[in-house]
UniProtKB/TrEMBL annotation:
This is 3-oxoadipate enol-lactonase. It comes from the Bacteria. It comes from Pseudogemmobacter lacusdianii. Residues 22-244 form the AB hydrolase-1 domain. NCBIfam families: protocat_pcaD. It is an enzyme of class 3 (hydrolase).
């Protein structure tokens, strides 16, 4: 997979689809990487799709932690500019959805629409993130793995077919990258700025999501006038991985409704 060499950072990216097609930007969450979207991308053959490994994740560089949310937003902004994408629909899950919110506030000229998947203006509490960061500093990413899978996949997490892929990706994440990005989440509260957004938005919740539960997702949708809210059943925090065809149906419905196809 190609790397983009920014002056201070090398980011691993994948860009595919017809060059002149409407653009989509896909942003994964904490402890993930760009492969999260593999199952979904197959259902989107008519779009120009950019996805990346965020700093500290996948095959991208891992600067020393902590990271700031503004820095992570700037990374994605620079990639969009690098590829000359215009009027993109930005689709972010969890941490990726926080980056998407911040990017839309900062660069509405680049963002035509938002898909906020299993995310919120603020996720968790500072003490929760401090505790998780301390555990990863002491014992590595494995220390938070089981609790994360439980939050992400719900009570029957051990039997979830998505578990092996999630486990491989999370456990392969550089602890410094995980700590860096968790620090960015911990320091972020976008309630006031997200409430200023006025653009087509789809908010997707998963019924079994213990990290960003349906009520929180509904509250997030209510911040943005006109945002659509869709609840997916039988999935948790990562519905694009757990049920790619159903996720693609929701997404394609939204893209058609806003004429982004
Ligand atoms: O770990 C979690 O509970 C959920 C999460 C927060 C940000 C992210 O990307 O995942």
């Amino acid at each position: 997979m190609p790397h983009v060499f920014l002056p201070d950072l090398r980011l691993n990216v994948q860009i595919e689809g017809p060059e002149t097609a409407p653009a989509l930007v896909l942003i994964h969450g904490l402890g993930g990487d760009l492969r999260l979207w593999d199952g979904l991308v197959k259902h989107l053959p008519h779009h120009r799709i950019l996805r990346m490994d965020l700093r500290g994740h996948g095959q991208s560089d891992t600067p020393e932690p902590p990271y700031k949310m503004g820095t992570m937003i700037r990374d994605v902004e620079r990639l969009i500019e690098h590829f000359g994408l215009k009027d993109a629909v930005v689709i972010g899950v969890s941490l990726g959805g926080m980056i998407a919110q911040g990017l839309a506030v900062k660069r509405l000229d680049l963002v035509r629409g938002l898909v906020l998947s299993n995310t919120a203006p603020r996720i968790g509490t500072v003490p929760q993130w401090q505790e998780r960061i301390a555990a990863v500093e002491t014992s590595g990413v494995g220390a938070i793995a089981e609790a994360s899978f439980q939050r992400w996949l719900g009570r029957a997490w051990r039997d979830n077919p998505a578990l092996p892929a999630l486990r491989d990706t999370l456990l392969a994440t550089n602890p410094k990258g995980w700590i860096g990005a968790a620090s960015a989440i911990s320091g972020t509260d976008f309630y006031e700025t997200t409430a200023t957004l006025r653009l087509p938005t789809l908010v997707i919740a998963g019924a079994n999501d213990g990290s960003t539960p349906p009520d929180l997702m509904r509250e997030t949708a209510d911040l943005i006038p006109g945002a659509r809210y869709q609840l997916m059943r039988r999935v948790g925090h990562l519905p694009m991985l757990e049920d790619p065809p159903a996720y693609a149906d929701l997404l394609n419905g939204f893209l058609t409704a806003i004429g982004h196809n």
